[in-house]
Amino acid sequence: MDASTAHWFKSSFSPGSGNGCIEVAFLPDGTVGVRDTKDRTRPALAVPSAAWTTFLTATRTGAFTSR
User: Fold this and answer.
1) CB contact at 8 A, 25 and 12
2) Fewer CB in 10 Å around end: N or C, the chain?
3) Using only C-alpha atoms, what is the Rg of the chain?
4) DSSP state of 58
5) More confident residue, 22 or 31
């Protein structure tokens, strides 16, 4: 995974301070890069785009909320 030229972004729901969040980038090889804003020098996690879509769908539908 080459993330050197990736355009990283945070969710609009993230706090403005820039720390304590994750950043995401859509990478040229078709994977989605995920990294911690507290240490951007560490390697990013690369996940298949289908897995990222599944995660977002589960998040939006409340699958991770406590009941």
Assistant:
1) no
2) C
3) 13
4) H
5) 31
| 49, two tokens | 């785009």
- CA pair distance 32, 14, nearest whole angstrom: 18
Please tell me whether residue 26 adopts helix, strand or coil conformation: strand
Confidence at residue 67, expressed as pLDDT on a 0 to 100 scale: 64
Residue 18 is predicted with a pLDDT of 56
> Which two three-digit tokens encode residue 46?
């690369």
Neighbours of 35 (CB within 10 A): 21
Give the integer Cα–Cα distance in Å for 18 and 1: 24
pLDDT bracket for residue 19 (50, 70, 90): low
